[in-house]
Amino acid sequence: QNITVKGTVKDSRGESLPGVSVKVKDSNAGAATDVNGAFSISTGANSTLVFSYLGFATQEQPVSGRTDINVVLAENNRQLNEVVVVGYGTQRKGDITGAVSVIGKKELDQRPNTQIGNLIEGKTAGVQVLAPSGSPSASLSIKIRGTNTITGSTDPLYVIDGVPAQDTRSLNPADIETISVLKDASSAAIYGSQGSNGVVLITTKRGTTAKPKVDFSAYAGISTVRKKLDVLNAEQYRQLVTELGYSTDWTQYTANNDWQDEIFRNGASQNYQLAVSGKTEGTNYYISGGWTQQKGVIENSLMQRANFKVNLDQKVNNWFTVGTNVAYTRYNDVSITDNTNVNGGGVVLGALTTPPNIGIFNANGTYTSNPFQQWENPLASIYGSTRPYKNQRLLGNVYGEIKFTPELKFRSSLGIDYINAVNDYFLDPYLTSYGRQNNGIARNETNLTNYWTSDNTLTYNKIIGKHNFTVLGGFIAQKYRYENTYIQTTGFSGNTIPTTNAGSVIGSAYNNKSERFNNSVIGRVNYDYAGKYLLTANFRADASSVFGNNTRWGYFPSVSAGWRISEENFMKDITAINDLKLRAGFGVVGNDRLSGSVYSYLGQVSSGANYIIGGNVIPGTYPSTIQNRNLKWEETQQTNIGIDLTILNNRLTFSADAYIKDTKDLLLGYPVPRSTGYDVVSKNVGKLRNKGLEFMVSSRNIQGDNFTWNTDFNISFNRNNVIDLVGQQFFSNTISGRSEISLVREQQPLGVFYGYVYAGVDPQTGNALYLNNAGEKTSSPSADDRRIIGNPNPDFIYGLTNTFSYKNFSLNIFLQGSQGNDIFNASRIETEGMTGPQNQSTAVLRRWTAPGQETDIPRASVNNTDNSRISTRFVENGSYLRVKTATLSYNFPKAIASKLKLGSIRVYATGENLLTFTKYSGYDPEVNAFTSSGGLATNGGFGIDYGTYPQTRNLIFGLNASF
Amino acid sequence: CKKSLDLQPISDATVDNSYNTATQAEAALAGAYNTFVSSDYYIWDNTFTSDVRSDNYYAGGDNPDFFQYDNLRLTATNSKVYGDWSNLYNGILKANTVIQRVPEITDPGLTDSRKTQIVGEAKFLRAYHYFQLVKNWGGVPLVLVPVSTTEPSDINTPRASVDEVYNQIITDLTDAVAALPDTYGGDASVNKARATKGAANALLAKVYAQKPDHDYSKVLTYTNAVINSPAGYTLVSYSDLFDGNHYNNAESILEAQFNGTTIGNWSPSLLLPPSITNTTWRKFITPSKDLAKAFDDEGDVVRKNQTMIFEQAPWVDEYWSATVNGRVPFPYKQRNLTNGNSTSRQYMLRLGDVILLKAEALNALGRTDEAATQVNIIRKRAGLGNTPATTQADMALAIEKERRLELAQEGQRWDDLVRYGRAETVMNSLNETNLVTGQKVNYNMTKEKELLPIPQTERNRNPALTQNPGY
Fold first, then answer.
1. How do residues A511-558 score in pLDDT, each as one tens digit?
2. B13: which of A31, A367, A445, A925 is 20 to 30 A away, CA to CA?
3. Residue range A129-133: average pLDDT?
4. Domain contains A942
5. Where are the beta strands (DSSP E) in A565-597?
6. What is the torsional sign of CA A496, A501, A504, A509?
7. In this model, does residue B97 exceed pLDDT 70?
């Protein structure tokens, strides 16, 4: 006789499990749990029910006459059950059909971090983190699956608890729970307009336990530079410049200091974080506060960040929930001018090229400068001015969620990102010669960013038998407003007042405002059949104010499918395979982020080109952009196929992805002939392709009671190619006096190096020889003899993490590397060029001085760059492998911890950049001199060393405690 | 929703709302004049292209690109060559915008006569810039309307011939002469700030002289038009020209206007001696020994003292002093300086130049005696006796030398040498010795080096451009 059995299925944490298969053993009858984990089935009173669900151990329950059976399923594969944040919702990892990487607690806790970029570097395939400098204030930039823009930003879209944001430097990594990286178009397409560079979803922490939990963490560390470079001493310098034809009263200059010793110091960092979190009936809260300080290895460089955060979710009743996520950050720094030569005030090249003879101060207390030119000594560049930068930011949202029925819910959220950044600058009127010439200079610049987003989504989730549907629809509106004010004054009576009001002459003063607006409609369907056949389709229609009426709307569809082969009956007996899934997806994403003005399509007329007539300043205007009403969305089409495999009793997880990413109608800052009167116009031009392979392996090698050993490895291969550039080629990144180094050309990857082929030194004349196109050696090649001489794109990048734990000890070693990339060492042009009165590296001791001499360094030639042209001489192998971090930690035994009235206590020591294996001759192989310049310079200009603030070696000691 | 998406610039205007009123027409014109006070070319690069490249001055400072002008080793990748090209074409765009837009303005506040004047002023400016282009680079792309599309076929303009460029300059200047008044009233600070009939005539004279097929009868016509202008141009004392207390003087036909604060001239801070700049580093331009000798040989104290100032320099100068703290001359024609900014001006056109051009025309037309009269007017002002030259050939050389002494540091010398066909002779017979190395400097001047290279960056952007021979 049949009875009706009802019940719910939950996991061990008490979360209900929807879509669990409930079968009557030895029959065809079956049902599945609904979205609340509830089921109802008619079966014999003595039958047996079989509960099965992917990622959980199958469980059998004899009915034995019961009508109410509640089941808790035990997980057998945590990874598949992990809930992953995806665009506008969450998904179980096992159900994902796109290319999504998750960086979770395990990875986040491995090392102390100051920036989001640190968290991601080397941890997942397909993501490259580029540091423009090792300065504590440097903002890391992230590239997902290569560069698919030539002049636009390569940064992905960051979404923090649902609020899109651009600057991540002021975010506090300690508050982050997980990071999801949406790499392919099918996962990113829901962000349509902004997803072309991929999307990084950041979820911050929430309460997890009923008992309030207090977490405290602190660390302190010191940092040093990896190495110093050898430069000429005072006597050698004097000989060199004498040979160049410079002379001075040398009795005035009797010092002999290595400026590297003056500018480098031991850096120091400290960080304190305190958080309270908990979960009570209906309420979930997380409150945190923290303070971080980093003093860089170059004098005066500093970064400080204070932050607090509140996350709160309140269930008002069983159909209504409200909540908020709010973070306030106060960030300030003092930056050092790097990535430029001494003439431009660059401190690193200043340290290498300032004469050792001159000492730091003159007798009258002012800073010394090069006796032959006005270049300040590097300490004057550091301390001659004050340069505080302050940034205050409020980022967060409020939301309300209404459950109309268990299946249908509506969510409305209003997010804001408000940033007020102030740059102050005061150049002392006495200390430096430039300061004296202007009687002091003060600047004040304020940048205000005001962003809001309103998201309204409706989600419907329905399970019918083995069919599981989720449908999402919504409207999104977003508005940005930027405001900028700037004033510069000169003519100060002294150095007591550093603000612009004390300057007697207003040099320039301006104020700028601009706005942009986006309006979007989104839709998504997720469907799976018995967890076996999976389908996701997205659609987003987006309108952007940066385009004209006719081209304003862009349409971005995507579809992806997954087949979980391991769920098929014919695989059931193959127990060695725990999970096997094939994924394939295709999608289109767009980009409306212009590198120029947000009003480019209109043809702008700017002000400020004034002229004096009759003694009066007459306001003058000038056309600043070419009108382009055809400006439209840039589109990226991406195809992705992937495989996920878990074997050996869930101990080995492997996943691989292959992709082709085609970007067309690139939104280009297009360099036009200057005969038009313009320089760069915004235009849709060209096609770009990135294709690549990504592999990730995660292995639990040893799982003993006392000893465990886990290994995670990822490697990515990306190939970038400029398919079409309407026959044009773009040059960028000028090395002083020697033209541009970076080239973007059809059928080449972005940013190849362009220059001459070096052919050694002519033993008769001492001149540098170069190969011309006819293959002959000449000391005077023509500009047309230049060719592609290097490629900064790596063949592959990789990361390897090994974690060993023995009893309460744990050792984590993270290796990271890049292979096959070239570096253009423009620093060496400055330190081996011998064209002026700069100090040089000891390499120039080998310089040619007499006819017949065979050497690799040409003769010194004053004010003439022919012997130090951009050439293969300065192209170096930039491959490296480094021990990025090694962390040894100790968890105090529970007994000790509880004696200290603590729930847990962990201490650790971390070494960062401990060892670096590279053939690169500069300070450090992680160099990207121009990546903070923006536009063409950035995307065509990575892998160039031009006096870069080096990455540092850090030693950190820390403590985590909770109760 | 559509309204939210139709955002207009807040801090900029657009082409649709910028050229509708009388005030906007004046603003567009002021923007066009602004090139004289904002571009490196007119601030000081023209001193490099003309005076430093010639026998007048040496390069100094720290930028190898500047030394290429001095040593006559210019390359297509020289950043100044590219910058100057860009500056001049940006000036042309602004002039073209005025020429295109202003006639379409229907604002009754803009009278037809003022409209005509405005277009005339813009045509003058366009001609001025094209004249710089054609004499420095030869045939250049002729762009006469602002581009409105970004199609390569519309913007990759090939080079016109030298004749075509000169013909366009002459057409524009002829229009300007017809459209422009002799003066805009009695205020010199207006009349010297704006293009006038006198300015257009003076430029026509220079253009007809500089053309490869010099038309000296036209030069004579137009120099006379300037000299006899109702604007009343007259020579002033030579020291008044440069002492900084006599801006917009009676000799000035057109000068770039600076106030030293919001519109300041920064080049004097890079040229003047330590006693004025209060900086001890080597300056960017140094008068040559050959120039100093030319003054001395002539006994020309008045003009030498206005052109250069000698001072102890705390560095070694490879031409003047092999030891530190030797006496070194500094360029002195722009000498007002406060806070790194200056009110000092370069004359865009002045009567002294025009009078010597008239002498040149008369001499070329065989009227050597009359030429001597003109030369002597200039010599007398400098406190010198009459020129001893009597034959046509001697007179040509005398005028060349007179122009050198009169117009040093004013961006004229290279054009003069090229016009006289003397650039090779003069540069290759220079006797300049580098005191540090003891080597004689060899300039290796060739006919091809009369022109600058077409900037490589511009050729990369515009594949339709050919390079000048020799580069």
1. 999 999 999 999 999 998 888 899 999 899 999 999 988 899 999 999
2. A445
3. 78
4. no
5. 577-591
6. positive
7. yes
Per residue in B176-212, pLDDT tens? 999 999 999 999 999 999 999 999 999 999 999 999 9
Separation of CA B349 from chain center: 8
Question: pLDDT value at position A134?
Answer: 82
Token pair belonging to A862? 């004053």
Q: Which residues of A touch B85 (CB under 8 A)?
A: 674-675
- Please name the helix (run of DSSP H) or strand (run of DSSP E) that holds residue A223, with its range, or none: strand A213-225
pLDDT in tens, A867-881: 999 999 999 999 999
Query: For residue A221, what is the enclosing H or E element?
Result: strand A213-225
- Among B140, B461, B465, B468, the strongest candidate for a mutation testing the A interface, having the largest count of A CBs within 10 A, is B461
Q: How far apart are CA B105 and CA B115, in angstroms?
A: 9
Instruction: Compute CA B322 distance to the chain's CA centroid, rounded to the nearest angstrom.
Output: 33
Q: How far is CA A155 from CA A181, A194, A198, A925, in A?
A: 12, 10, 8, 22
Q: What is the distance between the alpha carbons of residues A175 and A65, in angstroms, rounded to a whole number?
A: 50
pLDDT band at A680 (very low <50, low <70, confident <90, very high): confident
Cα torsion through B62, B64, B70, B76, rounded to 10: -150
Residues A122, A64, single domain; the answer is no
pLDDT digits (tens, 9 = 90+) for B425-436: 999 999 999 887
Q: Does A673 touch chain B (CB under 8 A)?
A: yes
In total, chain A counts a number of residues equal to 963
Q: Is the pLDDT of residue A341 over 90?
A: no
Whether A619 is in a domain gets the answer no
Q: Rounded to an integer, what distance in angstroms lies between the CA atom of residue A250 and that of residue A837?
A: 14
Strand runs labelled E in A627-706: 634-647, 652-664, 667-671, 680-684, 687-703
User: DSSP 3-state helix, strand, coil percentages of chain B (rounded to 5)?
Assistant: 50, 10, 40
Give residues with Cβ within 8 angstroms of A490, minimum separation 6. A438, A439, A440, A441, A442, A503, A504, A505, A507, B339, B340
Whole-number Å distance between alpha carbons of B46 and B31? 21
Please name every residue paired with A891 in a beta bridge, in sequence order, or none if there are none.
Answer: A906
For residue A890, count CB atoms less than 10 angstroms from its CB and return exposed for 0-12, middle for 13-18, buried for 19 or more.
middle
Taking every pair of Cα atoms in chain B, the longest distance, rounded to a whole number of angstroms, is: 84
Containing domain of residue A237, as a range? 229-263+336-376
Q: Note the residue count of chain B.
A: 471
Q: Please give the DSSP secondary-structure letter assigned to residue A67.
A: S
CA distance A694 to A98: 13
Q: Which of A413, A420, A397 is nearest to A160 (CA)?
A: A397
Give the residue from A238, A239, A674, A864 with the most B CB atoms within 10 Å of its CB, the best one to mutate.
A674
Residue B309, H or E segment: strand B308-313
Average pLDDT on B48-73 reads: 91
A738 touches chain B (CB under 8 A): yes
Closest-CA residue in chain A for B277?
Answer: A437
Nearest by CB to residue B150, choosing from A370, A607, A670, is A670
Of residues A609, A623, A673, nearest to B458 (C-beta): A673
Q: 1.10.1060.10, 2.60.120.260, 1.25.40.390, 3.40.50.620: which CATH number matches B22-261+445-461?
A: 1.25.40.390
Q: What 8-state DSSP symbol labels residue A465?
A: T
Is B315's Cβ below 8 Å from some Cβ in A? yes
- Within a domain: A443: no
A350, two tokens: 């200043």
DSSP lists the bridge partners of residue A886 as: A813, A911
- Using CB atoms and an 8 Å cut-off, which of residues 109-128 of chain B contact chain A? none
Q: Do A172 and A101 share a structural domain?
A: yes
**In angstroms, what CA-CA distances link A67 with A48, A390, B266?**
12, 65, 93
Give the pLDDT score at A933: 58
**Which residue is it, tokens 């004034």?**
A610
Nearest CA distance, B358 vs chain A (angstrom): 30
